[in-house]
Write a structure and sequence with these properties.
There is one protein chain. With 385 residues, the chain is of the alpha/beta class. A hairpin with a 2-residue loop joins strand 6 and strand 7. About 3% of the residues have low confidence.
């Protein structure tokens, strides 16, 4: 009898072990590749079994893909991750939730260069500033040689405008932010606008109870909300309008604006904050037509797949344009921006090295940059000899 129970115990142990390692996989996201807003990245896609007619086995690629897919998409992963975060934050006093820094009702993306940007420590040397001005002049001249006007707009990152809400132990240097320093360095070189003062004033008004919130508190760790995006849209379009006075810039009365609340779960609590939904009152005249971009046949690298193109047949007299930007544009009012152009190619700043190839093929009248990475844009653009 004892031998029976020993064997039964072993069989039960094997079955339980098999169940524990297969059940999460059976209930997993079989496709993968979904966007994780908590981690600000795309999760691993399902493994590729074959490359052409051959098994995807070279260099252990298939095993690596299977391991990454299971790690990212196994059932219960988010619940386990949330529980671990609660333990760290509530019991151990840790302020980090993955790549997010927690501070009261606020949540900040806290990785790469953002800590230095928050503390105003990302200072360039005089030599680097001079090189930046020279490269900006070269870009502007190369576009002028191609009969394209150029203008740029700097948007301030959430980490710059909202850094008063960071934890008290994080010191902020008594010097201008990166956005302010970029503007000062390049304002005499480029047709340049900055949204820093507008957005800073809007958040100060919110703190005083005299205006709406313009950056997400917890819902998004690195972006403005729709109200803030509309303010940025206005700054950018006013800059472009200085070149094309006939362009119509959308006003708030052109939208139905409905206020709403968005809620975010943080360790031990939920944070509810104001947001808004902006619906154009008039039917859009431009339409997304990505074949325009596909015809350029570019080796695009943008991991967010945000590159796109638009056609506005109702207004062929509007300028053809290339717009380079980042998530501060394509996640918000990019469709509305397209209303002001006869044809528009949007290029993510990650692909700014392809700008001159786009210009040579598309032959725009205007090239514009708008975003939080003007320095990176200038660095990436390849200027032909």
């Amino acid at each position: 009898m004892m031998r029976f129970w020993k064997r039964a115990g072993r069989v039960i142990f094997v079955l339980v072990f098999f169940f524990c390692i297969t059940f999460p996989a059976l209930l997993s996201d079989k496709t993968g590749g979904g966007l994780s807003p908590e981690e600000n990245r795309y999760l691993a896609e399902a493994p590729t079994l074959f490359q052409g007619c051959r098994l995807n086995w070279q260099g252990g690629a298939l095993l690596q893909e299977v391991e990454s897919w299971i790690n990212d998409n196994a059932w219960g992963r988010e619940a386990a991750r949330s529980l671990l975060t609660d333990v760290h934050v509530q019991l151990l006093g840790d302020r980090m939730d993955g790549q997010m820094l927690l501070s009261g009702d606020w949540r900040f993306l806290w990785r790469d260069d953002l800590p230095a940007r928050a503390q105003h420590l990302d200072v360039l040397s005089e030599e680097a500033l001079m090189a930046q001005r020279q490269k900006a002049q070269e870009i502007q001249q190369a576009l002028a040689d191609r009969e394209a006007s150029f203008c740029a707009t700097i948007f301030p990152h959430k980490i710059e405008i909202c850094n008063p809400f960071l934890p008290a132990e994080i010191n902020i240097a008594d010097q201008p932010s990166l956005s302010e320093r970029l503007y000062e360095n390049l304002k005499d070189t480029l047709r340049l606008a900055s949204g820093y003062e507008t957005l800073q004033a809007s958040m100060e008004a919110w703190q005083e109870g005299a205006g709406p919130l313009t950056y997400y508190q917890a819902f998004d760790g690195s972006h403005w909300n729709w109200r803030g995006a509309f303010l940025g849209y206005g700054v950018m379009m006013e800059n472009i309008q200085s070149l094309y006075p006939e362009l119509y810039v959308l006003q708030e009365e052109d939208f139905q604006v409905i206020s709403n609340q968005v809620t975010t779960s943080l360790p031990g609590k939920s944070v509810s904050e104001e947001d808004s939904v902006w619906t154009p009152l008039q039917e859009k005249q431009s339409r997304r037509e990505d074949v325009l971009l596909q015809q350029l046949n570019l080796p695009l690298k943008d991991p967010w797949h945000s590159n796109r193109s638009y056609v506005n047949e109702a207004h062929p007299e509007y300028p053809r344009a290339v717009l380079v930007g980042d998530s501060y544009l394509w996640m918000f009012f990019l469709d509305e921006i397209a209303e002001s152009f006869s044809e528009l190619v949007y290029l993510n700043v990650e692909d700014a090295d392809l700008l001159m190839d786009v210009v040579d093929q598309f032959q725009p009248e205007l090239v514009a940059y708008a975003g939080i990475q003007l320095g990176n844009f200038i660095h990436l653009v390849n200027v032909p000899e």
